[in-house]
């Protein structure tokens, strides 16, 4: 699939985007859907002046989620590295016995 223009609506505004594959298109559309859901959720939960306030809260939540996932991935990578070292030590001990 060559690059294709799609339109994703965020806060009642269409944004034209260029995507390279159907998979990328699906990701962008899903992201737009998630933003809309979060804005609806926050709009019914919190007081706000305009959609900019809701967008700010949604952006903050997604940034926090992203950083949390990144932190967990880094901790998992460190754990995997330690487990590999432990496995090598055990393998060496088994070879010696």
Structure report:
The chain is elongated, with a radius of gyration of 22 Å. The chain has one domain. Strands 1-2 form a two-stranded antiparallel sheet. It has 2 helices and 2 strands; from the N terminus they run ββαα. 72% of the residues lie in helices and 14% in strands. By secondary structure, the chain is α+β, with helices and mostly antiparallel strands.
Topology:
Elements: E1 4-10, E2 13-19, H1 22-45, H2 51-96
Antiparallel strand pairs: 1-2
Helix pairs in contact: 1-2
Task: Write a concise keyword list for the protein shown above.
elongated; 2 strands; two-stranded antiparallel ribbon; alpha+beta; 72% helix; single chain; 97 residues
Short description:
This protein is of the alpha+beta class and 97 residues long. The protein has helices at 22-45, 51-96; strands spanning 4-10, 13-19. The chain has one domain.
């Amino acid at each position: 699939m060559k690059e294709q223009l799609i339109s994703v609506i965020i806060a009642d505004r269409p944004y034209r985007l260029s995507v390279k594959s159907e998979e990328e298109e699906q990701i962008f559309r899903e992201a737009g859907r998630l933003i809309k859901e979060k804005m609806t959720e926050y709009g019914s939960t919190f007081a706000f002046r305009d959609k900019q306030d809701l967008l700010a809260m949604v952006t903050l939540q997604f940034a926090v989620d992203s950083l949390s996932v990144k932190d967990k991935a880094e901790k998992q990578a460190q754990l995997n590295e330690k487990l590999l070292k432990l496995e090598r030590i055990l393998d060496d001990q088994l070879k010696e016995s």
